[in-house]
């Protein structure tokens, strides 16, 4: 089944009891048992819920995995995956990672003696150097947030295999429509489904997909034990979002390419970060491992003052955290998504005060460009 068809026909797509074409919201905590100690398919909604199960089956399909898991947020998904490890273990992580993932590893898991080394995984040789005897996993994000760096997933899978590590990929930016890391050798793929998968700025959720039965069993055990599950109403919103994921991603990418070309012409813009541009250092790898470059673009206008004044003048660009929605969202990573990263570390990474991040939506691209033009004048 091709990706676009999977969005509609993947996983569990209707209700076996009623034939309802839209999987119903099973708003129940528990399930009647015919005999004590002999439950049916469902027993208690932390352990399993039919609406959540439909979502979990479709994300497994979209990611070419065998099992999926839905959590109350992307961070809930990452936290649950980290529970696979033990005190004393070590993780190698992409340096330009989402600020919340950095905060989780550096200020929460660190207290439980799960340590992390951050490296520029777009340079694979740096990854091998960072591996220690207690390293258990490589955790990468590609493209990264907000600098859109590209890491070679194949190469990371090779390194992970050689050193007996799990390869975990945060696939939030690329989406399963454009990139399927499990097919490129990753062991675990995860998403902030609050972004493109939901797609309408109306739900906070996390998803995980795996292809090994042993990992599926362990993650289900953690999901049920730690309990960071997604509720049925939010699971239903994601099921609905997924049906249009392919169409939204195509429209978003088309707009983003046009905006990237427009920004290249602007003298106020000193750098543009978009893997779809031939000059982007990760362009060739992105082309090989994904079928699209996505809808995230960052650009530098040189100073905090210039960034603030641009933001004030824009009409169609909603100033907000988050990304991946139908409306174009704009943010200043240094003050918003990446504020939890210390200033000196941001400087090292290249996240300047004049860096602006766009999550391009599905509006008419001419309106978006006219708006940018008037704001830049
Ligand atoms: C790449 C990435 N991963 C994970 C997360 C965390 O997801 P959530 O906000 O759903 O907890 C985010 C949130 O912005 C993100 O951008």
UniProtKB/TrEMBL annotation:
Keywords: Lyase, Pyridoxal phosphate. InterPro entries: Cys/Met-Metab_PyrdxlP-dep_enz, PyrdxlP-dep_Trfase, PyrdxlP-dep_Trfase_major, PyrdxlP-dep_Trfase_small. Pfam families: Cys_Met_Meta_PP. PANTHER family: CYSTATHIONINE GAMMA-LYASE, TRANS-SULFURATION ENZYME FAMILY MEMBER. Its EC number is 4.4.1.1, 4.4.1.2. The lineage of its organism: Bacteria, Bacillati, Bacillota, Bacilli, Bacillales. The keyword Lyase applies. NCBIfam families: PRK07671.1. Its cofactor is pyridoxal 5'-phosphate. The keyword Glycoprotein does not apply. This is Cystathionine gamma-lyase/homocysteine desulfhydrase.
């Amino acid at each position: 089944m091709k990706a676009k068809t999977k969005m509609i026909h993947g996983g569990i797509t209707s209700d076996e009891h009623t034939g309802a074409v839209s999987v119903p919201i099973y708003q129940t905590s528990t399930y009647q048992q015919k005999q004590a100690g002999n439950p049916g398919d469902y027993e208690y909604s932390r352990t399993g819920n039919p609406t959540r199960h439909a979502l979990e089956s479709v994300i497994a399909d979209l990611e070419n995995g065998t099992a999926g898991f839905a959590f109350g947020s992307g961070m809930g998904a990452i936290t649950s995956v980290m529970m696979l490890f033990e005190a004393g273990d070590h993780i190698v992580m992409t340096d330009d990672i989402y600020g919340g993932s950095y905060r989780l590893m550096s200020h929460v898991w660190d207290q439980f003696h799960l340590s992390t080394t951050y490296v520029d995984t777009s340079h694979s040789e740096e990854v091998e150097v960072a591996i220690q005897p207690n390293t258990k996993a490589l955790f990468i994000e590609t493209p990264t947030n907000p600098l859109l760096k590209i890491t070679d997933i194949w190469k990371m899978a090779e390194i992970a295999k050689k050193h007996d590590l799990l390869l975990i990929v945060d696939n939030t930016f690329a989406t399963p429509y454009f990139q399927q890391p499990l097919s490129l050798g990753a062991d675990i793929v995860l998403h902030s489904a609050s972004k493109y998968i939901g797609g309408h700025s109306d739900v906070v959720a996390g998803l995980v997909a795996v292809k090994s039965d042993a990992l599926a069993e362990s993650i289900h055990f953690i999901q049920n034990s730690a309990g960071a599950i997604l509720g049925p109403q939010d699971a239903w919103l994601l099921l609905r979002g997924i049906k249009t994921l392919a169409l939204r991603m195509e429209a978003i990418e088309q707009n983003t390419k046009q905006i990237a070309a427009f920004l290249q012409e602007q003298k106020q813009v000193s750098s543009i970060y978009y893997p779809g541009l031939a000059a982007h250092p990760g362009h060739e790898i992105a082309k090989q491992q994904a079928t699209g470059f996505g809808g995230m673009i960052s650009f530098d206008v040189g100073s905090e003052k210039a960034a603030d004044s641009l933001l004030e003048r824009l009409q169609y660009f909603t100033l907000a955290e988050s990304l991946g929605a139908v409306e174009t969202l704009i943010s200043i990573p240094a003050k918003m998504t990446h504020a939890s990263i210390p200033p000196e570390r941001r400087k090292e990474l290249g996240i300047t005060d004049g860096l602006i991040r766009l999550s391009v939506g599905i509006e008419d691209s001419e309106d978006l460009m006219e708006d940018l033009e008037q704001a830049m004048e």
